[in-house]
Predict the structure of GntR family glv operon transcriptional regulator.
Amino acid sequence: MLYKNIAKKLRFRINSDEFAIGDVLPTERQLMEEYQASRVSIRKAIDELVTMDLIEKKQGSGTYIKQKEIVHMMQPLRSGVESSQEIGKRITSEVIEFSIVYPDTEIAQRLKISPAERVYHTKRVRKINDRPQIIEESFMPVALFPELTIRVLEHSKFEYIEDKLGLKIEGSYQEFSPVLPDKEEEQLLNIQNREPVLQITSLSNFQDGTIFDYSVMKFKASEYLHAMYVHRETQGPILSQKKLSTPDNQIHSSAPTEDTLKFYPVQ
């Protein structure tokens, strides 16, 4: 339906740097001209964004940006707590799994450890303003974090690692893919009809290249937007030259390097 597509485009614009919270949205007539749509379609699109609590109508004044969703831009790495605080939202974590196990071959390879080395196996449901939006399953070497507790995981892992332990996180290699949730995940995220979720697989490393965390996160796609902004002029390798090798023996860097990935001008 046309109005759904318009609502999707406006949602992206609202969550971008085009608008700040409190800004007024273009008028119905301006949006009709921009999207070549009828007044009915524009109003239905706006009503949908009102329902999502992103905008609010003020009688005789206009439609204003009320808030933004959690958005991960291609900027410096942020924890969930840091990202939510930046836009004035509250994130909480419910730990539903916390155990110490021996990793299988795949997990050991990803963490670059021996299968004989124990790891924490944890699972958290992360809620934004009390609404479940992320399921995060993680594996972390016990040797690196011998005093890790459930209480730590109820808050920010990054904050604990950097502020409490004094360790410096360099970055994270991430892969994105859409997947269908299983029954348990549907219940945890309050979704129906097997609505697809966005899966992000993450390998995080310290400055010396040590991998300290392997996580698989599943995001409620209808409420969590991931976006990137690509500069037209950006060229060549950026950031560090450290490399991480993945289990399939492909070489990836914790950030783009000349050997793996370059950014070229948009044609």
